[in-house]
Design goal:
Order of helices and strands: EEEEEEHHEHEEEHEHEHEHEHHHHHEEE
Largest sheet: 8 strands, mixed
Bound molecules: zinc ion
Strand content: 15-25%
Shape: globular
Distance between the termini: 18 Å
Length: 393
């Protein structure tokens, strides 16, 4: 199969400026040739030609933090405990919604029953219309904290076993959740955060020994501190990161996946549904904290990869453009927000054949009717989405 995207403005994701009037030839799912439209040697009558005039071509977007098992919205936590048939069916639908918004690769960082792993396999086999999915099975958390349907442990051996079980179940990465005790279950004299530095070191060691990346949910000041210094591959959320934490992350090459969409959506529901004052205040504080952390992280030079946490919080699927907009609002240049959503995300996920538009790479592409380098909101103006060279939306 041969495809020519003709006379397009190309932003290739490497950090170079966009180039006008290029043509991109795709053969057998990969980028075969890139050059000026006038220099293409083939016969336009014999290939599928897509008119690129007045359009911008960018690499397929990557969302490093989604949960296709939940739809998000105001009652996102309750949705995680819906019956399994419900969760499975909608995971398929939501993955397609995500693909249609330009997301050709996603990390699903946790689902009940390990639905994410089954979903990733179905996507890989071409059975469903979905992004290329890298799945964590379920969250690994200390017993008595976080959600009850995570894989729970108390002692070091149990933690090592939990990681081995995830890997044996087919997970592509490990996801751990640092969190405080759930209401009323904290034992006397126990620390605020039982999944502490020592346990996290064990988790990082165990994951890396097996050649797996480890993503760490850190949603409160203590967890942010512990996670920033532990050498995890990515710190998810990070609304309470302070200067010394960000310096440690820059030194450890730990990516920040800020998931600002969640707090943005949460505040919307807090106001629209008239939540109690305390909850509204919490939404405002989290939103503010997350924006401050991103602004500071950019200054310190922490690597940033885009993640929406669609499904895992109030944020809904198919709205990756909003996260990129929020990044720009926090002081990132549009091209840096786009890098966070393409080549930087690819580096975090370990997708060396994706994330940029270069000869030889997999042809995951998004064609837009405007230039997102000028206005990041252009990410909503999708003309076509190509996955391995096939038009899928
Ligand atoms: Zn999440």
């Amino acid at each position: 199969m041969q495809l020519l995207i003709d006379e397009v403005q190309l932003w290739d994701g490497t950090g170079s400026p966009a180039q006008p009037k290029l043509s991109v030839e795709v053969r057998d799912g990969r980028i075969h040739w890139i050059g000026s439209a006038s220099q293409w040697q083939g016969n336009r009558a014999t290939v599928r030609v897509v008119d690129g005039r007045a359009r911008t071509l960018i690499p397929g977007l990557m969302d490093c933090h989604v949960h296709y098992s939940s739809p998000g919205g105001p009652e996102w936590i309750a949705r995680f405990t819906d019956p399994l048939p419900e969760i499975s069916m909608r995971a398929i639908e939501l993955a397609e919604t995500s693909l249609r918004s330009g997301v050709t690769t996603a990390r699903d960082v946790g689902a009940p029953y390990g639905v994410s792993i089954r979903l990733a396999r179905a996507a890989r086999a071409g059975e469903i219309r979905a992004p290329n999915i890298r799945a964590a099975g379920t969250w690994i958390a200390h017993r008595g904290t976080y959600v009850s349907f995570a894989r729970l442990f108390e002692e070091t051996d149990e933690l090592r076993n939990a990681i081995k079980t995830e890997i044996e179940s087919g997970a592509d990465l490990i996801k751990v959740a640092l969190a405080g005790w759930n209401e009323g279950v904290r034992p006397q004299d126990a620390p605020d955060i039982p999944f502490d530095k020592k346990l996290l070191t064990v988790a990082v060691e165990e994951a890396h020994k097996a050649g797996f990346k480890i993503a760490c949910h850190a949603n409160d000041p203590t967890s942010c501190r512990i996670a920033a210094h532990a050498g995890v591959d990515s710190l998810e959320h990070g609304m309470f990161l302070e200067a010394q934490d960000l310096e440690a992350m820059a030194k450890n090459k730990t990516y920040l996946v800020p998931t600002m969409s969640v707090w943005d959506a949460m505040l919307y529901y807090a106001r629209a549904i008239d939540w109690p004052e305390a909850r509204k205040k919490r939404a405002e504080d989290l939103r503010q904290g997350s924006r401050a952390a991103v602004t500071a992280a950019v200054k310190v030079g922490v690597k940033i990869a885009l993640g929406t946490d669609a499904g895992g919080g109030a944020a809904r699927h198919g709205r990756i453009a909003r996260e990129a907009e929020l990044m720009v609002e926090c002081g990132m240049e549009p091209r840096h927000a786009l890098i966070a959503a393409t080549s930087s995300a690819a580096a975090l996920i370990g997708e060396s054949e994706r994330g940029t538009i270069e000869e030889g790479k997999i042809a995951d592409l998004v064609l837009l009717d405007a230039n997102p380098l000028e206005n990041i909101g252009a990410l909503r103006l999708i003309v076509d989405v190509f996955q391995e060279g096939r038009r899928v939306a």
